[in-house]
Amino acid sequence: EPFRFVDEILELDDDHVVAAYRWRPEAEFYRGHFPGNPVTPGVLLVESMAQAAVVSLGIYLLEKELKADAHKLVTLFTDVNVEFSGVVRPGERVLIHGRKLFFRRRKLRSEAEMRLEDGTLVCSGTLSGMGVPA
Q: Quick one: which of 53, 61, 118 has its CA closest to 86?
């Protein structure tokens, strides 16, 4: 908090992650995005997917590889390509699925998707990031 958009990690292994987040209705950004019709900003949806599919999965993979605390690294996002197909309203819970495409030289590229609890696809794409010393 205040810039964490993953509540819990539901599954995590060498190839994938499943995470969940409930968008807080009291979040300040809803006041202006959009008045009378609040919608979660797309950039925050991408951030939430990145926190699950790149940061969480990346920390897990780095700690296995380095056999050390990877929390001392900072994740830099290197590229993202996401398509949007739905909206997330205040109070809705989303599930984020990330699948490793490749992991080498501390760079992780993942395929990710975000769905509402009812299974409706919100967005999907590929995200990449790299762990660098803090």
A: 118
Active site residues: 33
The pTM score is 0.94
* The dihedral sign for the CA sequence 94, 95, 99, 103: positive
What span, in angstroms and rounded, lies between the C-alpha atoms of 122 and 68? 35
Q: How far apart are CA 110 and CA 86, in angstroms?
A: 21
Please report, for residues 12, 17, 111, the alpha-carbon distance to residue 39 in angstroms, rounded to integers and kept in the order given. 29, 26, 24
Each residue of 97-106: pLDDT tens digit?
A: 999 999 998 8
Task: Give the model confidence (pLDDT) of 6-40 as tens digits.
Answer: 999 999 999 999 999 999 999 999 999 999 999 99
Between residues 1 and 120, the one the model is more confident about:
120
Closest to 84 in 3D by CA, of 57, 54, 121, 33: 121
